[in-house]
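Title: Request for sanity check on GAF domain-containing protein prediction

Description:
We are preparing a figure and want to confirm that the structure record we downloaded matches what your pipeline produces today. Could someone re-run it with the sequence below and paste the raw structure tokens into this thread? We only need the token string, no images.
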Amino acid sequence: MATDTSSLLGAAINVASHLNTTDALRNFVDRAARLTGARYAALGVLDSRGNTTAFVQVGVTEEEVEILGHPPRGHGVLGAIPVDGPLLLDDLTQHPDFGGFPPGHPPMYSFLGVPVRVRDQVFGRLYLSEKPGGFSQHDAEDMMSLAEAAAVSIENSRLYAEARNRERWIAVSQDITTTLLEGTEEEEALEMIAARLREVAEADTALIVLPSVGDAWACEIADGVDAHELIGLVFPPDGRAMTVLKEGSGMIVDSLTRLRTLRLRELARFGPALYAPMMLRGEGRGVILLLRRIGAEEFDLSDLAMAESVAGQAALALELAAARHAQDVASLLDERARIGRDLHDLAIQQLFATGMQLESARAHLAERGEAALATLFEQSLGSVDESVKQIRAIVHSLRQPDTAVVLVERLRREASLARTALGYAPSLLIDVDGVVIAGDDDDSDLVDTVDNRVDADIADDVVAVVREGMSNAARHAKASSVQVRVSVLGHGPTGRVVVDVEDDGTGVDPSVTRSSGLSNLAARARRHGGTFALGANERGQGSLMSWQAPLS
């Protein structure tokens, strides 16, 4: 029977009263079934390609839904519904686009299909079937009117959702600002940003792509589904991530799995994606990549705008971390200069005075015939002279810390720098073919051997590995002692350099599945054809980080 005007008006008001999109859609479908007397009613929500991304229905039992396995994909007769009017059929099985019912599908004949348009775009399609006596033209007109009311409800619920979503983004932005002002470490700040972004964007995985070895860019931070498998993933120079980095503007992809030009097959397991460049003063510092599972709702422009804003804060996190590091280096250089002045102005002068007193005493003893004592004083004078030489060498190295120095000295400098972060002096042991370099002039040949066998490229990585190993122990291990051993074994392609960093801290946390620093070390090892491993030490009371690379 035809729907009276008051019932249609009441239904329209009821449908338009919902601010929650899911509730609005469910109410729309239920009202449509009641007003027309249809046994079955459903609404298929479409993505930008016309595929069904959500399906709300009444009439089909739970058992039948389970047998069918998945909702209609929106093709065939359903896809033949016009974008600007209804499709009215007495028997849908006679339509030329009908392709048959899947097994377990209840029989349906009379059919009414209506487009639901939001902002002049088809948001979805309303499907009605099995009305006793069939659907009339009046039913079609009523459903078109109800679809317009549903469009208003959907638009209102979208605006409401966007406002609530904006509030959540602003809250995340405030949290990030607070974290930056507190001086949180760079890696910890980026991990927090990735986790909060994934949460607020309702993404399944969040990646942060940063500069890696050489000119490469790699995933340094990952949070969410398959995060541990994506750490260290190197992004191609002509891919989408690098494109948004160069252009300085973000990008939304409806589905990575459908892309024909996807170069990273590891990302083919995801559907919708959002790329947001980390821009600071017009320069790209990295890329934030948000990913959702296949079939999930696509990201929209409001998500992109907010993500780009937060990505700018992530770039600021890197800038502040670099500034803090520069400040620490400046403080260290000032401290070096002060120590150098004190050693030169005080220690050396006192040793000179002591030497003069010893020389006077030696001469007096020699005049008295005390040869044995005079010889002892002569040896003491030699020790004083040697101490003056060593202090002068130390002062020279302190005054010129950035000049080219041998690898052994660079490693000793790293150990000295790590003392501030650790709160104690780490143990550093360097050996060549099992012979330990003790640190005196007699080992100068061994020091030169290290430089001759380890070329500059590998030496830079060795220093970086030692630095990161001690830094990791300071930040995460809660250790009371750290031992670093650098071994140069053999020479040429058959030789290798081995770096072991061991601590007595809390050991490796199995819940931690990501670390940009550690992934960098693995990348450095792979670049030279070497290996990297992190695990418990032999005593089971701490961790052992082992890195090695062949000598070239």
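Thanks, this matches our download. Residues 1-6, 15-19, 510-514 have pLDDT under 50 and may be disordered.
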